[in-house]
Amino acid sequence: MHSFIIFLSLLSLTSGAGDWCYDSQEARCGPSNWSVHFPFCGKSVQSPINIETWKAELDSSLGPINFEGYGDYDEDKEWTIKNNGHSVQVNLTGDITISGGGLPGTFKALQFHYHWGTTTLPGSEHTINRVQYPMELHIVHKNEKYSSMIEALKHQDGLAVLGFIFIESEEENHGSDNVIKALDNVQQNGSTSKLKQFSLENMIPDKEKLKKYYRYQGSLTTPGCNEAVIWTVFPEPIQWSKSQLNKFPESLFFSGLKPMVKNFRTVQNLNGRTVYVSNSAVRSFHVALLWSVLVWASVLFN
Fold first, then answer.
1. How many other CB atoms sit within 10 Å of the CB of residue 76?
2. Which of 13, 65, 104, 256 has its CA 20 to 30 A from that of 208?
3. Is-contact 219 227, C-beta < 8 A?
């Protein structure tokens, strides 16, 4: 709990500093100028990145991730949702962790937040084969071996962040209804509200589909851009309806009447880093490739 309080304090300090923003707010404090006040933002192990799937290197240690507590919740208890001036964030409590999947230890879930574009333009932070998606969800975990967020941010294995991309669907997805309904209560910068706990499992794709993922070493995508993040990005998308996706840019504000739109950092250079791919992703690719070859062979020889 002590480290969690420190984490929230750091977020408050960053959000209230006024030294950074997104280009959709004002270019002078946008991402191209972050390094003026936050030196890490100008370093070489930064996030997000573009993931070129055909260049990803197989890592046999990247097996399934163990999601503990993701399906547990107590409807009599609540989480806090906040407009922190840069995104909407839900601060988590409870014993929710991830391990396995090549991660160096057990990581405790602290919060999740979103990045998006506008009602007509995409806004994911990571891109896959240069494709930017409508929205991206980040679930932030701290390595349990570090006693505080301050300490964790000093180490490459301090944090593990799960990145989920979104695509538009004709049907609504009710797994995140609690969050979407709460947006009207946190429209302005600094506003907070309570929402009943719910199953994080219902918010993300089925575990079987999460065996496919990409892994790389990177940073926070907001100042101070600490290079302390083990990133896991899943190609399996979360499917939301257009109205659900639009609820974020339509409901939230940076400050005053300034709509909260395009709250994403553009992709950063790899600078020699390797992007790894899990066993399951490679096997699925090879199966799909083999199937395509068989289909074309059938067409050609019949």
1. 7
2. 104
3. yes
d(CA 252, CA 24): 13
Pairing outcome for strands 57-58 and 276-277: parallel
| Full set of structural domains in the chain with CATH | 2-300 (3.10.200.10)
**Tokens for 120?**
């007509």
Q: Kindly report the pTM of this predicted structure.
A: 0.88
Asked if omega into 224 is within 30° of 0 (cis), the reply is yes
Token duo for residue 79: 């989480």
Q: Which of 86, 126, 138, 141 is catalytic?
A: 86
Reported confidence tier of residue 301, pLDDT bands at 50, 70, 90? low
CA distances from 250 to 59, 117, 118, 259 (A): 41, 11, 8, 7
Give how far Cα 169 sits from Cα of 5, 101, 120, 241, Å: 37, 29, 15, 5
- pLDDT tens-digit map of 53-96: 999 999 999 999 999 999 999 999 999 999 999 999 999 999 99
In this structure, what token pair is assigned to residue 144?
């349990």
- Pairwise CA distance, residues 140 & 111, whole Å: 5
Residue 159 tokens, joined: 């944090």
Which helix (H) or strand (E) element contains residue 296? helix 279-300
Q: Please identify which residue in the block is written with the tokens 């936050």.
A: 38
Cβ–Cβ < 8 Å for 142, 108: yes
Per-residue pLDDT for 18 more than 80?
Answer: no
